[in-house]
């Protein structure tokens, strides 16, 4: 587990506090992925997807990634895995 990798353009914007996200190995799922597994809905109809990302997605994504960095543990990883499985199952039903 660990925060999903971010494109360099956004990594370059990290504050000193946000750079802590880079201290953990990236993973395939994280709290931010679970918060909004279908970001396409947020972008739908957006005249400015970059602005939409910066205002509606990035702040929460960063907050959840920092939460993972601060609270990471084996139990947290198990919780994320379980919730990811449940999310995948519920989307396919």
How does this structure look, described?
With 93 residues, the protein is mainly α. It has one domain (8-92). The protein contains five helices and no strands. The protein has helices at residues 8-11, 31-35, 40-43, 49-71, 74-92. The protein is flat. The mean pLDDT is 88.
> How many distinct domains?
1
Secondary-structure element order, as H and E?
HHHHH
Distance between the termini: 25 Å
Oligomer: single chain
Q: Mind summarizing the main beta sheet? A: none
Give the rounded overall mean pLDDT. Answer: 88
DSSP summary: helix tally: 5
Structural class: mainly alpha
Per DSSP E runs of 2 or more residues, the count of β-strands stands at 0
Strand residues, percent: under 5%
Unreliable stretches, pLDDT < 50, 5 or more residues?
Answer: none
Globular, elongated, flat, extended or rod-shaped: what is the shape? flat
How much helix, percentage-wise, in residues?
Answer: 55-70%
**What is the gyration radius calculated from CA atoms?**
14 Å
SSE topology:
Elements: H1 8-11, H2 31-35, H3 40-43, H4 49-71, H5 74-92
Entry keywords:
93 residues, mainly alpha
Please provide a brief summary of the model.
This protein is mainly alpha-helical and 93 residues long. It has helices at 8-11, 31-35, 40-43, 49-71, 74-92.
